[in-house]
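Quick entry between incubations.
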Amino acid sequence: SQQGEEDPQALSIQEGENATMNCSYKTSINNLQWYRQNSGRGLVHLILIRSNEREKHSGRLRVTLDTSKKSSSLLITASRAADTASYFCATGRSGGSYIPTFGRGTSLIVHP
Amino acid sequence: NAGVTQTPKFRVLKTGQSMTLLCAQDMNHEYMYWYRQDPGMGLRLIHYSVGEGTTAKGEVPDGYNVSRLKKQNFLLGLESAAPSQTSVYFCASSYTGQGLAQYFGPGTRLTVL
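Done. Structure below.
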């Protein structure tokens, strides 16, 4: 079973708009990561947020984490056509080795 | 640095054939992983390794074997390929398992006829 699940499955927006995607998970986590995958490529790490953090920024990316709701959101501001990709969250359970579990991803299309 | 490389990039097999996928990393990472990615299923962990000489099963290990004889290499074997193993296979590595970023290879697209 997959720990993290992204929502929505697909998102289509215009260039310049903001894109928000969510991740829900089931068990306690040490931290949560977001990755991007361009078509036909491997995943690229975007940002990590620890379980004791509520918000984190990296350039045009803003990630929030609500451990009480077991959910996270990724906001991409002022989106560009180059942001077109699939976005995945990865979670690892608290305790022991962190072996991340990925969700099915959100497919984002940004129209120029 | 080359990062994480995978060999081959593409392969077509007939049912029952065997093959080995090679993953190599030059970042001195302890942890290495093999995933498969199928449409609508996201990434599913096949096997992983927490260090040289160690391997462990992931979510979908059946039909696959792995070996980590050298720290920089992680091999994924299919002993008797089945059409259900048609997928894109990704290798990844990380310094440790403690939530640090994973670095992914470019993937191997495998088709089993």
